[in-house]
Amino acid sequence: MIFGFSGCGKSTLARRLGAALGIEPLHFDAIHWLPNWTESGDEYKIERVRKELDKERWIIEGSYRRILWKERIDTADTVIFLDFNRFLCLYRVIKRRIMYAGKTRPDMGAGCEEKIDFEFLRWVFWDGRKKRKSNLELMERLKDIEGKNAYTFKNPKELEKFVRGIERK
After folding, report:
1. Cβ distance 58 to 49 under 8 Å?
2. Rounded Cα distance, 162 and 19, in Å
């Protein structure tokens, strides 16, 4: 299970881990956003996530706390929280917008061309970070559960070292 702030690299991490482990990741944005930035219903998302959780091995990236959050945490053997600073995330969101101008990212719902608006920038910089403290507390609690791997990465360098270790196996 991978979660973190917008622009921190959850989708990229999921793709890399998926390639290394032979698992097709589920990207929450791809099931949340229907064509033309239309939000899907919770029932649809719950159904899709349940199918993933029923698999022996899975990678799900994205926060979306109202959709089977506890079940994802309980079922996951590994939980990764990307706790990157807001300025790096903002830079990456802007870079992503330039890279995918007029296109849809591979981890996004079909027909959702990359865009940036004030509401999203506010989410990246402020609103999307409101649960940071509780996320850090959650990760500390998970470290005490036998058989559960809980990783919090503060910067891309730490994360890269971790991913390269998995890719070498």
Report:
1. no
2. 15
With the C-alpha atoms ordered 107, 109, 111, 112, is the resulting torsion angle positive or negative? negative
Contacts with 82 (C-beta within 8 Å, 6 or more apart), sequence order: 2, 3, 4, 5, 8, 9, 10, 13, 153, 159
Q: For the chain, give the mean pLDDT.
A: 95
Token couple for 99? 């890279």
What is the C-alpha separation between 82 and 95, in angstroms, rounded? 18
Both tokens of residue 12?
A: 């990229």
2-168 homologous superfamily: P-loop containing nucleotide triphosphate hydrolases (3.40.50.300)
* Dihedral sign for Cα atoms in the order 72, 36, 15, 9: negative
Q: pLDDT for 52-110, tens place per residue?
A: 999 999 999 999 999 999 999 999 999 999 999 999 999 999 999 998 988 888 888 78
pTM reported for the whole predicted model: 0.94
DSSP string, 29-93: HHHHEEGGGEEPPHHHHHHHHHHHHTSSS--EE---TTTTHHHHHHH-SEEEEE---HHHHHHHH
